[in-house]
Amino acid sequence: FGSSGAARCLAMAGRRGAARSSGPAGFAAERRCVGRQTVGLGGRCIAAVRRSWAWRRGSTSRSASRRAALPTDAPGVGDTALPPLLQQNHQLGLEGGRQNRWVDTLLHLDLHPVGSPLYRPVRLAAARYFVAGLRRSGIPEAYRGAIASVGPSSTIIFLGAGLLVTSLATARAGRRVVVLEASRTVALIARALAEAHGLSTQELQVVLAHGPLSEPSTYARLGAPPPGPLALVCERLADDIFGERLVQTLGAAKKVWPSTDVIPREVEVWAAPIELRFERIEGLDLSPLDRLRAGGDEAVHVRLDRQPGQICRLLAAPVLAMRLDFAQMPTNAVFNGCALASPVRLDALHCGQATAVASWFSVPLGAGRCLGSAPRLAGAVTSPEGWRQAVQYLDEPVPVVHGQPLWLQARVDRGGGAASFSLAATPEMPAPGEAALARSSRGGGGKALPIQSYHFMMVTDGARNRALLAGVRAALALARARGADRPRLLDIGTGSGLLAMLAARMGAEVVAVEMVPGLREAALEAVHLNGCGVEVLPAQASTQLSAADVGTFDVIVAEVFDTGLLGEGAVPIFRHACSLLVPGGVFVPARAAVFVQPLELEPLAGLGWDLSPLGDELLAELDTPLRLSTLPHHALGEASEALHIDFARLAEPCCATAEVCITATTSGAWSALAMWFELRFDGEGAPPLSTATGGALRAWKQVVRLLPRPHRRVVAGDKLAVRVAHDERGFTARPAEMPAGQRR
Fold first, then answer.
1. Which of 148, 403, 648, 691 has its CA at 20 to 30 Å from residue 119's CA atom?
2. Is the pTM of this model over 0.90?
3. Which domains does the chain have, with CATH numbers?
4. Could you confirm whether the keyword Transferase appears in this record (predicted)?
5. Secondary structure in 3-state letters for 283-348
6. Mind listing the pLDDT tens digit for each residue in 198-230?
């Protein structure tokens, strides 16, 4: 961890104890091996993050437990080698699959300390899931209500730290809490949070598991649990309910401790056939892009209530596809292998093409409380905040006629780790395995989705399309003013071919290039379907093109920007494209500007709990893509333009640093810097395209850099100096040193 927030918090706790009591019985920091690094951790926190059920003896009062001496053989956080499954996940890498991303990402935190190549992406991925989870409506409140119904003498055992706030609230309410966690890093964070909120190890104990919580052997190795009744709590709810090993984790624990109570006790999975496909976008038929949705081996998660530019509707009323009774585990078929439900009949409400099966969950938590992810399309009063629905595309569309009987069959396999759906349109119920049910969303080859879901968001982002279209129109006008009757235009990274086809309709001679073969084929089909005269080159990178082969162009369009502007290789793409541009030619966009703004922001503020140790560990001093509109924050000053990049005049190497001084307009704790960019176009009638928060764009987020603690308190009128820099991969910012006398 080096100087990470969690380690600092734990070390500070050890120093406070040492000041009160020196000598062998004190809290002198022990040296413990954590992965490949050695850090000093406060002794009482080491004892709190244990590898056994052993409870500390003596008084149960908070003050007494803090004064208790540590046994010299107290297990540390790095006593054993990583379990084989974790080693295997490390070899597979972060992108080993769409399922279980949250659980696997937390385990990867232990494998990549400061300085390793994956340190930054692993922590950003973990932080993203924490941020998203804390904003999912209802989880901590609903779980706290269910836990309150458990007998007061029960020990509450959390299988995984979850969102952290539920275990904190449960301990604060006077319940005895144990948190089992497989990630060493998260275990330390959980203990640091408990310490920060004044919770002793008697109130909230963190136990580091010996292996995955989805394996019965992990619980068997823990030995005898605390005496008395137990209640197992698992917050591993995913958009498709199976994706984070909820079923496997509860099943494994119940296999070792069959008489325990569980929360949640049951889960209902609802499903319906849907039609999800493109409408005409900017007057063009992009239906060939729909083909790239099919054949995926995993569910994709989408918000069915937010699909602008697409036809998205349920073709039949939702049905209860399966009910998972966790109280019956581990004897049910779901945990022991696979379960194939009987086909359920639905009657089609609309005519159309069923392209996918959408599913969502409902979790009854007692006393009228119910946690669910049903969309408004399915009759929900409101769209659940933060939740998405699981969509599994069918291998081939199923034609549906109003009133026609449909048969939906659900299957759970991988020991409860995955679900699939099959759909048939036949008068009589087909037998399981019949050809009529062969159109399974997971049974058709197991291919990975050819493109990512954000491509669909880009294509359907109307504000993005209109801004780029205005830039193309202005650039073509400039080319005609220079004497090009039919300007030649190159569209780099054409994707769906949308901009290329619109430029052709404006009278340009258009050549398009796309390096992803599946996208290139879809663009070529869309060009023929819409009757647009666009030459689509064979799949290749634009940097492989030469003027001798394709000629030169009056206008070159390249929308190759990620949230950090340059992360998709924009600099080498534009640098090479200069060799394909005629003298006086125009790039679309022509320039970019980077803006920075000081903020008071705590992205992991959750339900009244201070989660700053979590933010310090995962996010501090990392440039994090976040959607500011979803986070509580306020600006401490006006945004300032800090950097300017001209794509036609790129230096080599392309890097720059600038310092700006921003006057604070309000008081607050300067805890973050927000950054975004603005694309600018040559010509008239093309307003800039800004990725600042509050705009209509959906395709980009903002970049946020959390500042290390302690945060500087500012008042209106203070001068805030910020240093902003960029290289060929992106931009970053941090406070610049300013003499104290110049701060006002």
1. 691
2. no
3. 118-235 (3.40.50.150), 266-433 (2.70.160.11), 455-588 (3.40.50.150), 591-735 (2.70.160.11)
4. yes
5. CEECHHHHHHHCCECCCEEECCCCCCCEEEEECECCEEEEEEEHHHCCCCHHHHCCEECCCEEEEE
6. 999 999 999 999 899 999 999 988 888 888 999
